[in-house]
Write a structure and sequence with these properties.
The complex is a heterodimer of chains A (271) and B (292).
Chain A (H helix, E strand, L loop, with lengths): L1 H31 L19 H6 L2 H34 L5 H11 L5 H14 L5 H25 L3 H9 L4 H30 L2 H6 L7 H6 L9 H36 L1
Helix pairs in contact in A: 1-11, 3-4, 3-6, 3-8, 4-6, 6-8, 6-11, 7-8, 8-11
Chain B lengths: L13 H25 L2 E2 L10 E2 L3 H7 L2 H32 L6 H13 L2 H12 L6 H8 L12 H27 L2 H9 L4 H12 L1 H16 L3 H6 L11 H10 L4 H26 L4
Helix pairs in contact in B: 1-13, 2-13, 3-7, 3-10, 4-7, 7-10, 10-13, 12-13
Classes of the chains: A mainly alpha (271), B mainly alpha (292).
Chain lengths: 271, 292
């Protein structure tokens, strides 16, 4: 008994160590962001911390890209939720002929790589003057976000017990009332988590951002990519920038991981 | 899927479904159909004087006879096979390691998952500079400590470097799903296995893995789809180079359209990429759903 307790303690310790090693690159970036440029190249955790990098990085340019990211991401989440939640609701509760086909059609569109659509999209947006316009990214991101959201939300709606649905219809609720009064409160947490996931993916998206924007509508990942040829002169500022733009997804990741797993697995694992 | 068709009166329910369907079709399916048409054209955006003409299957012949295409195809397959296997094995091992209760357990598990939530361009650049840079990164200091020359991650081992970065970023995703499976294993199953003397690896192989098989397949399927699409990590680290030694199919398509501006050829590569994606996914589905 005692032996197994020691083993348990050692394995717990090992788990902590593995987690710290795995996340080390991110921790190292955050630590380096507080180093003066002269110290940043030399590894080590002993140094006099400075906010100098942040003072320089938080420039008008950064705020412009930040503004674009916020605007585009919130716009995408809004469009995605408004279109995908009713669609998921209809897929589960409406008398459709082949709801499964439509559901799998949504799921299958997430397989399509972005490069399969970018060529005509780029040329059409160029004609419409939408290249380097935030609206272009909101449209593209919503096109990617809606299928994912439908996928997750449909699985959440499916878990609503049939008795509750029956009770609602016996009480004389019509479908719209049932949706807002009964369904929405039940699946609210699921919808919020799915929306957070869409937020994270949109915030991080790189391919569309780098192809369809230049300077006016470019988002933070594109801003970060300007550091990719760095040879060591501005690593402190690079790390400060990286830290600033990762705070939001890291923070949201804490809250959304459980729902992500639930939404992605409940359809396929139980089925 | 519809839970109580009888109770619901027929009404305009397609009206709430159609906006989403139309929107997604307009942004994904229709452009893809246009891409297929483009793949049959001879068209260079930067040379309007040459005009646009029908090119038959010539673009496909050009792509399928170029040496670079096969290097990139091979890279893509190596990446997908190596990453799927290693991510799955690592995630199962990590799952077993983390599937125990201790103070701060949830916190450390969340730390492990972080790389999945951080954007490609940031982690790619941090790995490229702070960690792997041969003259100033940790690479230099660690190799110096052991008295060897810095490892040339971006010259000689560029494909391996891309694979390492993908595994680092995607194992947490596999872990999340596999961990959920492990946590669902009822305690009495574990207990009775212990009584029967099945412990450690024996229990993992004979009892745990068969129980969480569906979770493993889900993780692998979603991983397959997403790893085939990897672009940002390649873009900010190796740029597909040297040459095309670390390029995958998405990156090759990107380069063909936005460096060469050759619409027809890029569209042909995109169509081939989608065909290969569908083929691999289909094969994978068939292989994993065989015994059900």
């Amino acid at each position: 008994m005692k032996k197994s307790k020691i083993k348990h303690a050692l394995l717990c310790l090992l788990a902590c160590v593995v987690a710290l090693i795995w996340v080390f690159p991110i921790v190292y970036m955050i630590v380096s962001s507080f180093k003066a440029e002269a110290d940043v190249v030399v590894p080590g955790f002993v140094f006099s911390p400075t906010l100098e990098n942040y003072k320089i990085v938080l420039s008008d340019t950064f705020f412009k890209y930040l503004g674009n990211s916020v605007l585009i991401t919130l716009g995408t989440v809004l469009v995605t939720v408004l279109l995908a939640v009713p669609a998921g609701y209809a897929l589960v509760f409406a008398p459709l002929k082949n709801p499964n086909n439509v559901y799998f059609w949504f799921v299958s569109t997430t397989f399509l790589p972005a490069i399969a659509v970018i060529i005509p999209v780029y040329l059409i947006f160029q004609k419409l003057g939408l290249v380097d316009n935030p609206l272009a990214l909101v449209i593209l991101y919503s096109g990617a976000g809606i299928p994912l959201m439908v996928w997750l939300v449909t699985n959440f709606f499916k878990e609503v017990p049939a008795e509750i649905v029956e009770a609602a219809s016996l009480d004389g609720c019509n479908r719209v009332q049932a949706f807002f009064r009964i369904m929405l409160p039940l699946v609210r947490n699921g919808i919020i988590s799915a929306a957070l996931l869409v937020f994270i993916i949109t915030w991080n998206e790189f391919f569309y951002a780098v192809t369809i924007t230049y300077t006016e509508a470019a988002t933070l990942p594109v801003y970060m990519s300007k550091y990719m040829t760095q040879q060591g002169y501005f690593w402190g500022k690079m790390c400060a920038t990286g830290t600033l733009i990762c705070i939001i997804p890291i923070f949201l990741g804490f809250f959304t991981q459980k729902a992500l797993v639930k939404g992605l697995t409940s359809g396929s694992v139980k089925g | 899927m519809s839970k109580d068709k009888a109770n619901v009166k027929k009404d305009n329910s397609t009206r709430v479904l159609m906006p989403a369907v139309i929107f997604v079709a307009a942004v994904t399916q229709i452009p893809f159909a246009v891409t297929i048409i483009f793949s049959l054209l001879k068209w260079n955006v930067k040379r309007p004087d040459l005009g646009i003409s029908f090119n038959g299957l010539q673009n496909f012949i050009d792509v399928l006879t170029s040496k670079n295409f096969y290097i990139v195809l091979k890279n893509t397959l190596i990446i997908i096979v190596a990453c799927l296997i290693l991510c799955t094995v690592l995630a199962i091992l990590l799952g077993v390691l983390f599937n125990r209760k201790y103070p701060g357990g949830y916190f450390f598990r969340t730390l492990l998952v972080m790389p999945y939530f951080v954007m490609d361009s940031v982690v790619g650049i941090v790995w490229k500079t702070l960690l792997l840079n041969p003259s100033m990164g940790l690479n230099y200091y660690i190799c110096q400590f052991f008295g060897i020359k810095s490892i040339d991650f971006f010259g000689k081992h560029s494909l391996l470097t891309v694979i390492i970065l993908i595994i680092w970023q995607w194992t947490p995703f596999f872990f999340l799903i596999i961990m959920a499976g492990l946590q669902n294993i009822p305690d009495d199953v574990t207990e009775s296995a212990k009584i029967d003397g099945a412990n450690g690896f024996k229990r993992l192989i004979l009892i745990d893995i068969p129980i969480i098989k569906k979770h493993i397949i889900t993780a692998m399927t979603l991983g397959l789809i997403n790893i085939l699409k990897v672009f940002g990590l390649v873009y900010v680290t190796t740029q597909g180079g040297p040459g095309v030694s670390s390029a995958n199919l998405p990156y090759l398509t990107y380069r063909t359209i936005f460096y060469d501006w050759s619409v027809g050829k890029a569209a042909a590569i995109a169509v081939i990429t989608v065909a290969i994606t569908l083929f691999i996914t289909q094969k994978f589905f068939n292989a994993t759903n065989k015994d059900e």
